[in-house]
Q: What sequence folds into this?
């Protein structure tokens, strides 16, 4: 498919994909996609990533229930980063991070250290059984 | 510096850095940072990236004038992606992309093709002399 060939996949056949909450604009997380992950995402309308640690496709929420409905997929000028505008769903809506937080970007640089500023919304022990 | 060691730099000593407009929440661009780029960014309060194509530090706006004042730097749970909350400045405020557009993510996937949906705000010929 031509539109897949327009993406500049890296040496491992991957590109980073940013998940941004459509309603709030919050950047939730960054994961990786290969051709199949992107094709599946567009087919399902739900985010499917490539897990580098597990070496397989990973449907977001397959274990946590925290699925991402994909409203829009954008490509940058260089063709090497994807931006997904999503709705973060689940039993507890709005949790994208495996730590039980809204966003994976919960640490802020302050005077030489990374300070955790966002609360845990649900104990991860209750998310991953 | 400890806080630099908490970042999981890749094999090339880099991590991706997302620039997000603080006021609008718009994701403007993604570039790369090494240790020095991040240290300089925090020192200056303006975004400094590592240009992989030029193999050197690149102060955003050094040619275009489209500098990014950095309000906040966040690190994700894995420690391998940075999120910069910025104010996109310059003679023409709000232009982050070298194509003269607000954001680098100006193409949307629609029915099997990437459709350009955002306007050019300034002709690049007038940006890079």
A:
């Amino acid at each position: 498919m031509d539109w897949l060939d327009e993406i500049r996949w890296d040496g491992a056949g991957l590109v980073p994909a940013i998940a941004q909450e459509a309603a709030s604009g919050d950047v939730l997380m960054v994961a990786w996609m290969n051709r199949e992950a992107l094709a599946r995402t567009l087919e399902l309308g739900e985010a499917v990533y490539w897990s580098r640690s597990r070496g397989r496709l990973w449907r977001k929420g397959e274990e946590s229930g925290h699925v991402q409905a994909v409203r829009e997929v954008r490509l940058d000028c260089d063709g090497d980063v994807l931006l997904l505008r999503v709705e973060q769903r689940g039993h507890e809506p709005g949790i994208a991070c495996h730590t039980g937080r809204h966003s994976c970007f919960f640490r802020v640089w302050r005077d030489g250290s990374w300070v955790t500023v966002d609360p845990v919304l649900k104990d991860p022990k209750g998310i991953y059984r």
